[in-house]
Task: structure prediction
Amino acid sequence: MTTATGQNPAALADGLNAIDAHRLRRDFPILNQEINGQPLVYLDSAATTQKPQVVIDAIVDYYTRNNANVHRGVHTLSQRATDDYERAREAVRRFINAPESCEVIYVRGTTEGLNLVASSYGRKYFKPGDEVIVTGMEHHSNIVPWQILGKEIGVKLRVVPFNDDGELLLDQFESMLGDRTRMVSVVHQSNALGTVNPVKTMASLAHARGVPVMLDAAQSIPHMPIDVQDLGADFVAFSGHKMYGPTGIGVLWGRAELLDAMPPYQSGGEMIRSVTFEETIYNDLPAKFEAGTPDIAGAIGLGAAVEYLEAIGMARIARYEHALMRYGAERLGSIAGVRLVGTAANKGGVLSFIMDAAHAHDIGTILDAAGIAVRTGHHCAQPVMARYEISATARASLGLYNTTDDIDALVKAIDRVIEVFG
Ligand code: PLP
Result:
């Protein structure tokens, strides 16, 4: 038996039992509060996730007991800080199944990871007339760095289009790959549509022509198992704050032989082996790309977030969130006057929608009055909005702490939007 939108109720129930979200949400102290007199319903995890107590404790513990600069001191505090900072790097390596921990470069977030590769790899290897392939559903941070480089060097952006459901046209991607292609840089899961792109297939098509592949994993890393070797990527960037870790820290993973051959992105302390006024010898990976004092507390908090996710299990989280997304898509899709934007067959926990009755910002305001946090706007993906000829959507995005109760509260508040504006 299936429901109106093709769901199998037994599979749905099975997915919703994959984790105990009611219990897990108690790990997140911020969720236990009222907003505008209503229990907080947090549906904005694609913008940033909330933090479990273990992550908050790891940061407090670092500043309370171990604060010192890393890699620079023989004293005990510096050694403790360095050990914890490097242990977190190893936790990230394990989480993404990277071959070497020296390939895990701490950056500020996905944005910095993408800028690092565009700037360092691009400046070294790109020539006028070369092409970088992106998709039509990129976040601005995977468009602008290539565009800036394009203006400087004369590199052209090629854009893979997508259909009305928000699915990439793979045959067009394949036909774009050519002699001038120097990089394929694609979003794994779209933040505006939720589409999960077939990046493994895209990577093998690109590699068959000797083209490296960069993945923007900002939205996929918190929601599904990521194995960088299995995906076949060459560079992968993601942000700590979208995976239950702190803001200000993220990771660029890259294959060691590529990173080794690339010039530094920023320079100063830590990234050098020796400096004279005549010459500087750069440090080995990862230090070559980590100039200056890093976000030590952030890295340690990220390590705690990774361990938290590992203990729950990414495959179980993916099953749960998929079921919850299907539940939400069915409930929202059945409200007259609500249109879902992004209906790909393979999609993650993002429910972007527009309403006949109200503009996205008005929807957001009414939902906030009901204690419900959603994002409204273009979601830093203006080309996606242009594709659908709209200026904005309201976006409910899911995390492991959301439940069907949150979706039901959202639906009730949307009924209120229709009452007020309809
Ligand atoms: N890429 C995608 C798909 C995103 O959703 C985001 C943030 O929303 C980013 C990149 C940029 O991430 P950050 O602002 O953490 O650098």
Summary: The longest helix spans residues 76-96. The radius of gyration is 22 Å.
